[in-house]
Known about the structure:
The structure is a homodimer.
Chain A: E1 2-3, E2 10-12, E3 20-23, E4 36-37, H1 55-59, H2 67-84, E5 87-88, H3 90-111, H4 116-119, H5 127-130, H6 148-153, E6 166-169, E7 172-173, E8 177-179, H7 181-202, H8 205-218, H9 220-234, E9 242-253, H10 258-261, E10 290-291, E11 328-335, H11 342-358, H12 373-388, E12 394-399, H13 406-420, E13 424-428, H14 429-435, E14 437-438, E15 445-447, E16 450-457, H15 469-480, E17 484-486, H16 489-494, H17 497-502, H18 506-510, H19 516-524, E18 529-531, H20 538-547, E19 552-556, H21 567-576, H22 579-582, E20 585-589, E21 596-602, E22 605-623, E23 628-642, E24 656-658, E25 660-662
Parallel strand pairs in A: 8-25, 12-13, 12-16, 16-17
Antiparallel strand pairs in A: 1-4, 2-3, 3-10, 5-6, 7-21, 9-11, 9-22, 14-15, 15-16, 18-20, 19-20, 21-22, 22-23, 23-24
Helix pairs in contact in A: 2-11, 8-9, 12-13, 14-15, 20-21
Binding site for Mg(2+) (chains A, B): 333, 335, 559
Protein name (chains A, B): glutathione synthase
Keywords (chains A, B): ATP-binding, Glutathione biosynthesis, Ligase, Magnesium, Metal-binding, Nucleotide-binding
Amino acid sequence: MSVDPSSATVELAADSASTLTATPTATGTATATATATTATGTATAAVDATLDSSWYAETYPVPEVHEAFLYALVEQAKDYALTHGIVMTPKLVMAMAHAESATARASSASSAAGAAQSKSAASGGHPSSASGSGSSSVGGGGAAGGSASAASVAGRPGGGVSVTATVTHAPFTLFPSPIPAAELKRAQALQPHFNELIHRVSQSPEFLASTLAEAAESDVFTAHLLSILKTVSAEEKTQKVVLGIHRADYMLHADASLQSVAANDDGEEVASAAAADDAAAGDAVHAQKRRRVDREGDAANDQSDSVATAVSTLPDARHRSSTSKTPRLKQVEINTIAASFGGLGSITTRMHEYIMSRHNFKSENLALPENVALAKLAEGMAQAWRLYNKPGAVIMMVVQPGEHNSYDQRWMEHTLWERYHVKMIRQTLTEIYTYAILDDVEKALWVDAREVAVAYFRAGYSPLDYPTEDEWDGRLLIERSRAIKCPNIGYHLAGTKKVQQALSTHEALAQFISDPEVISDMLSVFMGLYSLSPHENGDAIVKTAIEQPHKFVLKPQREGGGNNLYGEDLQRALTVMTAQQRSAHILMDRITPPKVANYIVRHGLAQRGEIVSELGIYGVFIADDSRIIKNEAAGHLLRSKLASFDDGGVAAGVAALDSPFPV
Amino acid sequence: MSVDPSSATVELAADSASTLTATPTATGTATATATATTATGTATAAVDATLDSSWYAETYPVPEVHEAFLYALVEQAKDYALTHGIVMTPKLVMAMAHAESATARASSASSAAGAAQSKSAASGGHPSSASGSGSSSVGGGGAAGGSASAASVAGRPGGGVSVTATVTHAPFTLFPSPIPAAELKRAQALQPHFNELIHRVSQSPEFLASTLAEAAESDVFTAHLLSILKTVSAEEKTQKVVLGIHRADYMLHADASLQSVAANDDGEEVASAAAADDAAAGDAVHAQKRRRVDREGDAANDQSDSVATAVSTLPDARHRSSTSKTPRLKQVEINTIAASFGGLGSITTRMHEYIMSRHNFKSENLALPENVALAKLAEGMAQAWRLYNKPGAVIMMVVQPGEHNSYDQRWMEHTLWERYHVKMIRQTLTEIYTYAILDDVEKALWVDAREVAVAYFRAGYSPLDYPTEDEWDGRLLIERSRAIKCPNIGYHLAGTKKVQQALSTHEALAQFISDPEVISDMLSVFMGLYSLSPHENGDAIVKTAIEQPHKFVLKPQREGGGNNLYGEDLQRALTVMTAQQRSAHILMDRITPPKVANYIVRHGLAQRGEIVSELGIYGVFIADDSRIIKNEAAGHLLRSKLASFDDGGVAAGVAALDSPFPV
């Protein structure tokens, strides 16, 4: 293989009928740009960086399209989104456009004092938006993530498009982004195990209470949830059936250490999170590649669609196997309440399929993996509804007042009706407090003269959702009722950061999972998670983190966006926090995701840049007290955001809906 | 039967399991409000008006819902529309909100001089929006109709939502509107005959040329089209296959004379249009009824959805037969070019089905007639594309620059790709002039390096589409090419008003249709149509129309909205026009449609009022020079607008997408 680092253009004689012209481009801080040329085979990159994301270059180079063609392409994608319901309120999307510069610094600065309670006022959005990740969070404050940042600019003047009958498309990437096929499968295969883990943890109020006791001392929100748990644990059980709708979020971790440990492809040898070492440092240099895909020679037919500059068929990537350079998925968190975007995410895959197939961006016999999230989530709800066994009862979606992401929710409502003839109604916690009643005998939950079979929460995860004691009373009323809760209080608490951290060792998992192989599989996707409690060697890790802040993320127990701290903010926070305040936080090793070029389309405008992605795997779980009735992976969600070159970009993400392109 | 005209509330002991409470309401100018009460049967109205629309009351009373429930209902309907792609650019919808007061009078006033040429500058919209109707046109300048009015306010400040990535829902009625089932079937059954008629007329350049000669003298646009016809008729035929996508538009005519002639239900005895008499006068009094449907007794289950005030199951209307009071459909016109709303209209029916089924507004086993328009239109195009027989070729949609109704068009593009893997591209006539070429040998049309199999016009029907000679050259280029035209120039001309009028007699139809029964069926849906040419007894009818202007509509040969004249405007125009100017117009007996209460939802806001509806029946036709390959009715479109109490409300219509509820 001849390597010519100075070569500006690389011809890939790909194995399909297409030719690609790749132009390696050095990105901002990247220094390594060597790219290989081979006469007949596929090109391989030789990169002088410790972190290697060259697998992208070998597999699925997101096309770079000429400007004139790009216009037509964006127009087509946007119109597909607008006609197929990938929509949001314009206010939210426009707010997100400002979020990166405006909110990131402000929110991280105000967080620094560590007083999580009051800060979470910025987290009006969805928990996925609030999800802290090991790296700069894709979900955090982002497009796909909801309104963490939108909440803070809701009152901003000049919106002009706030009429609720007006929508714009949710931000999306123009092309799907590469995810190693084996990793996608691995995460899907793991999901039933995580579903079951959450279930078992939720059934141990003692474990939850003891694990969360210290955090509850400094975090009123956790304390409130715990008190509900205690209340209902002491009472007679009203409902044996539980419905779990979860989403486990992952990011790819391009860990240089993988090159030595991951000798084969099955992912078993990946170093456990706790063993992640210095090689994963956030300031490592990535080899950045951009590819410009030129027009195929014979023009005309089926190739370009609107202008005379077009793109080529990419090779079918299915037959590629992961290599030692393949980055591995690492779990950011599991959302056990209000996991969103099952609706919009599913349709985004259809949009990508449309764009990719129509313009021959992929070989014809390769379809993007179908996204079954919407169908599966609705199916799970309908099944729980049938188990309640009252034909006239409804599913109640617990919503935030003024929800910006209601169209994602409407998809569930429409699907439930059109496929199952099950009605879904929407109620805020305040409305539930005001209007809902329990009947004395059966503890059936009645709202507005309708019996509630399933209470599905798309609110209630943030302190903002409980402005007064009334909303807590509403939550308790639901919890005490015979309605099937999704989630119940145990599931909610099982998804908190402190519990995540407490479950990050073999010993902890062994309390709930008997199969050591499953435990080992779970551990393989964990990053290092550390307690900050002085009773759990917290002082030592705090010292390390203050010395090497770039290796960690500081996450509050609190759900809600924009509260994760990185770099100097993390350093400062850990320095000033009291021991008690620290106990309401955890530390996580920072994920260093590989970057890939793509276009993010927001409000009809495309911006090309390096992005990082976060993959969500939905899980649906139904059980009663004697058996598991349903336990499955239920589709996926990919969200991507422009990678911030400032590695302290806390919650700066302006995420966009994406689809995985398996490579 | 006991009749109590003063009764405020009528209990209908309906034959299904529901109860309805009807509250008759006298409308603005209506004076007759008598309503009957029967103890056991259905209520029948005794109305002291010459025109009788009491069939509505007997069949499908559009529900009147309580305000609190209405809010939830509108929210649900609007969100369904927004997630399912019943969308438009907000500018258009907002413009329409102003249209009624602003444009109607201005446009009719400026039209009065009869100089059709310059006035049509107001008709940037779709021909369906421009379609003159026998009454105040539903399509005219309306929502469903496109941008006749929007064009005139495009530059209006304060839009604020003109970003093309922002959409709002197209205006729609909250409930479907009643159409006699037998009439719907009749119009569908007639469609293949009209398809064939248009085809035969299009194949007679001599007939078209002689019929339009006089109109062309004062109408440059018609002259231009005719000259293209002459040019291509003299040349060798490049393409034997023709594709027709038409939409015949109808309104119900509540003609008092029907009461005597329509003794049975089959519609055959309906007085022919030419025989319509004074009893159809436009100032007749309609009995207006509104019905408030109260909540069913046993509440809770499956009945209401969001508040404790709800509505009841309506009786299944399928078993009702039309009676002597049933109004009959009368043809407004047939659109042979750019018949729109196949996309949005189809989805509107799904939205109505959702709202109606979810809230039990209809019996469970009654589905609204499926609207196959989008599927059938795409199927027709795909079939024509296959007949062209070049795998790499595309379908070219000829579009207006800055089209406001592009989402309706996108539905076709998406459907063609997802179902047939046929590509559709969009080109303006200017682009075609600039970039398109014919190859010398085969006369294949190439645009931007792609061969065009089918040229489908969604532009080109209005003089506005030809700002310079370039666009005419582009049109001619297409016409001369081997591409299958939809429509070709003959089809286009066969859809003009003058041709419509010329075909309104038995003798004229007999030139093209051999079956006398078919001719009789066609005549039964025609209103009286009159030439204004001095050579065709025009002077006599002009005199009558000036004396009784309320009985007629004056329609210019010109396609394009807002040019039909009524009442005093008509009177004034006919008085000042020269004979030559009159020859570019026709007169039509005015249709007097029955009114029914409904809600029109525009930009998220619902307005209840009396509406009139216009039913479109799509037709798809494919033939070569030896045989008919496809000839069918292809779905429907119902558009409704608030009935203007000013019976001179020219093109004042703010139409909304509706669905027929067969009664």
